Structures are given as structure tokens and as C-alpha cells.
Amino acid sequence: MGWLLWTLETLLAVAGAWALSAALLRERSTLERWMAALLFGAASILTCVQGLGLSGQLGRVQLAVAGLVLHGAMLAVAVLRVGGAELLARLRADLGAPVRLLRDIHRRQELAAWALLPAACALVLSCVVAWYYPNWAWDVVWYHVPKTNYAVQTGSITWVDTSVWYVNGYPELTELLSVWNVLLPRHTRLDDLSQIPFGLLGALAVAALCRRASASPALAASLGAMWLTLPAVFLQLHTSHADVVAGALFITAFYFLTERDWSPVARTLTLLALGLYAGTKVTGLFHLALLSPLLLVRGVLVLRRAKGARWRTLGQAGLAVLLLLWLGAPTYVENAARTGNPFWPARMRVLGRELAGPIGAEEIAGPPAFFGAPGAFARMVDNWSAREGMYWPDVRERAFGWLFPYLLLPVLLWVSASALFSRERWFRLSLPLLAGLAVLVPAAWWGRFTLGLPAAGLVAFAVLHRQVGTRYLQAPLSALAAFLCVASFAKASVGYRVLPTLGPRATPDVRDEDRLRLQIGWLWPLEAMRQREQELRPGDVVAYDSATSFLGEYWTDDLRNRVEYVNHEGNDGVYLDKLRALRPRWVSVRRESPAEHLLRARSHAFERLFDCPLSSAVMYRVTRADW
């Protein structure tokens, strides 16, 4: 029943988002309408989860009702605005877009279109991995998954008592979208699905920028697909790392912000994308601050042109700003209210004021923004062309494969250098601006943090492709890009590490998840995972202390148990009283700590189960209630 509920609610969300985009962007291109639909869908689902979570009413029935009302209203507004007949006509046209694209590829004999194959493969593989495997990436099991699980457990998205700081302080768009995929079916099987739509959004945004550069539909789609097949993108699609979400939203916001006329629709979508971006990662707030002068200047120019309609324009802008704040501000507001530091847990100095936090900002992200450490720029450049890329457990070196350093970077430099001599100088100058903004973030050497950089290179390639003007030069360029794209995808595919078995298994008793756990050293061992699923009943409590690292492993697959933080602060009696109040089924404590000594002294009631991997935590089973 849960899967049926999730399917119906998600289909309604898709229908409502698409219909609203079709109604509001009737005169826009198919690419822009699809981009808007993805933004509307993400914003509406976030609104449901966040609204209920902030009020402490986040439950399965409440979420289903909220989704039904909001997405039904979006669909109704679209029908009332343009009529059902026009929506159906637009739907038929949109469903025919892939066929029209294939015809254009065939007519133009576009060799770059070979990139569509690995892009499609990446999307399909990511969906398969998300279905068969738990969310296993390092940071994800550490704090991304616990964010989602705590929201489901508590019915709230406010702070919880925990030793994992990032669970409370970090922006959480990706994790809240995962709540939709977990709470409705009441299972974590799809908790790592939330980035996949944003991979598509990023590809669409790159394609739209290429169309603005006068690329053909075939070439634009191919270059968008190349962004999707970058190692830093396709190897993260099936996780909830949030970097693909952030990169896609940044590129999308930049696309709408740099529209020539900056229409009301473009203004709203710019702020919508920036709000979602700020709610995804702190770099979203960083880029919002950097772009604010441009936003202000463009806003003033729009207001000056709006003679006779300035109050209406101001009203539209005000509503868009409120939307941005609703989507992006809640985490920062709560952090500031609780600690005085909106960027908690990062300790940093801003405008001469020291913002307190348990960990230095440089310890989280590495070199500060604006290459604020010796050798930071050189390290970033070196990592683009490292001899061997690090693709597992996450993407670090050579995050853009061979495509960016050996083709897109030289093209981007050429197009940027020649921009002043071009009639379209402002558009061409926007490309180094996009690239520059992308790499000013902290730890820019980490390619998955700078996904706007290769996007600028792909658009520059579209400019050069048109500039050469002759088919005899365009064809080799397209072929080279396709070769580097496909070769990079093949080389980096080792980062999948373990793939599900489709067909008969060599060893029938060994499940796909068993093979995964044998490979991933920070996940619980097979026997521990099986004990968790077999022993823990609905409502059972698993207690943990500050020794815990990979907190996502403490919940069952269907989240039927509760996970609670109980730390020994020096008083044996207080610690034991807290445990007794919770009546835990399992207790995780630091090895050789006072807490473990207490459990050992009560060996008649506590049985040691296993050591938690890559941490100093030890798990005990409570065997008696009268301890």
C-alpha cells in the first residue's frame, strides 16, 4: 500500500509541476518549461515536507494530504489558466520532443550525440543502484541519511540531540526531498533517489545555455548529456551527497539570471533556483551573496523600464524574494536563533565578528574561498588532470574526466579571450563569469564542488562549434568531444564499485546487498545488519553515544525503530537513569569508556554484539529489563 501511495502522490506532483510550467511558460521553449517543471516539483515537495516539519506535524497521512492539496491546486490553476485542451496539446508536443531530437541528430549526422548513450546509461544505472542498494556513500551514511531518518522518526525537522553536528547545522533540501521518498512508502529503498531529477535539470540547463549560443538541438542535447556523464556527476546521482543538486541549481539560476530581457518569469525562476540552492548547501548562500549586486542592478533596470507598472513589478519581486527566503532560509535562521551563528557548526570570522562553532570552517571544507590558502589554485588545476582519478568512495581527482582538461578548458580560454572582439561579447563574457563563480568556493580542488566550471566549458564548445562554420571542422570537433566523454565515462565507471546482479546469481545465497557490505568497509558487517533487521521491533530504541560515526546504519530498512543519543557525561547514575527511561533494545557505547565499563559490570543484562566499523563504538544487546 505504501508503494502505491508514493507512486500516486509522485505522479500527481509531476503532473502538477509540469502543468503549471506549461501554463506559465506557454511561449517558452520546451527546455525552459521542463526546467521550470523540475524547479516547481522540487519547491512544492519541499514546501509540503518543510511546512509540516517546522510545525512538528510531519507524518505519513499529513504528508499525503498536503501533497494532494498542493499538487492538485497546481494542476487546477494550470487547467483554469489555459484550459485542458491546450494542456493536452502541449503534453503531446512534449512527449514528441525526444523523437524530434532523434530526427535532428540523424539529419545533421551529429557525432557528439554518442554522448547520449552513456548519459542514458548513467540515469538507468543510478535508478537500479538506488533500488537495489542502501545509501552507502561515506558522508551520506555519516550525516545525510540520519537527517532524513530523524525527520521521519520525530515528525519534525528542527534540531535533535546528537553528537553528529552536521545533522543539525547543514542545509537539508536533498534530505527533505528524501523524506518524501521514505515516509510515503515507509521504507528507505528510495532514499537515494532525490539527486537523479537534478542530474536531468543540470543537463537541461547546459543544453539551454548552448541553445542560447545558437547550437542546434542535436548539439545542445549532446553537450547537456556530456555534463551528466562527468564522473563528478554520474557517480553521485545515486547518493544524497547534494553536490549534483547544488551544481544543477547554480547553473539553472545563472541561466535565468543572464536572460537578456529578464522577464517576470525569468526573475521568479532565478530566485526560485537560488532559494533551493541556498537550502541545499552553504555554497548556495555564498553564491547568492556574490550574485546579489548583479541581482540588484538588474532589478533596478527592470524597475526603471516598468513605467506605469512599477508597483506590480515590485509586488512580483517581493513575492519572489519571499519564496527565496522560504526555500533557503529556515536552516540558517534556526542556527542563528540557537547559536548566534547561521553557519553552525562551522567556526569562522565574518565581517570582523567571530562566529562560534565546534569545528573550524577550514577543517570542514579545506582551503577557504577565493583560494585563500597557499597553493590552492595550483592544487585545483593539478587535480583536473591527475594521472589517476580517485573515483571511490567519492569523486576527488580528475572529477571531469579527460573531456574538460584536454578540450573544454582550452576552448573556454579561447572563447573568453576573444569575447571582446565578438558581437555577442556580453554572452561570451558570461561564460568566464560562470566559471569564475564556480571555482571561488571553498575547497575548489574538489571537482564535485565546482560543477558550474565544466558547464561553462561545454557552452564555450557550442560557441566555437558555430564559430568554425564549416562541417569539415565541426565534425572532428564533435567526434573528439564524444570520444573524450565516452572514454571518461568508461574509465570512471569503476567508481560504481559494486553493481547489482541482473539475472541468475553465481551464488544464490549471496544477495546484492551482501556483496556491497563486503566491499564497503564503513557499513555494518552482514551478520550485524541481519541481526538489526531480525531483532528490532517497532518502537525499539537503539541508544548511541559520541563514539558513533556512521549513524545511518542504526535504523532498520523500514525505520520501525527509534535512535536516541545518550552520552556518558561523567555521572554513572545520570547515564543509567537516561538509559532506563528509554528502555533501549540495543546500546552503542565507546570502547573502554566508563559507559562500557558500566555495561560490562551488568553482564547479566548486556550482551556484546559487534564492533561498529571504522569507529570506536561497540554495540550491546539488552537481554533483561530488570537491570
Automatic annotation (TrEMBL):
From which organism does this entry originate?
Answer: Myxococcus llanfairpwllgwyngyllgogerychwyrndrobwllllantysiliogogogochensis
Report which superkingdom the organism of origin falls in: Bacteria
Transmembrane region positions? 6-25, 37-55, 61-82, 111-133, 217-234, 240-257, 315-333, 399-421, 433-460, 472-490
Q: State the protein's name.
A: Glycosyltransferase RgtA/B/C/D-like domain-containing protein
Q: Which UniProt keywords apply?
A: Membrane, Transmembrane, Transmembrane helix
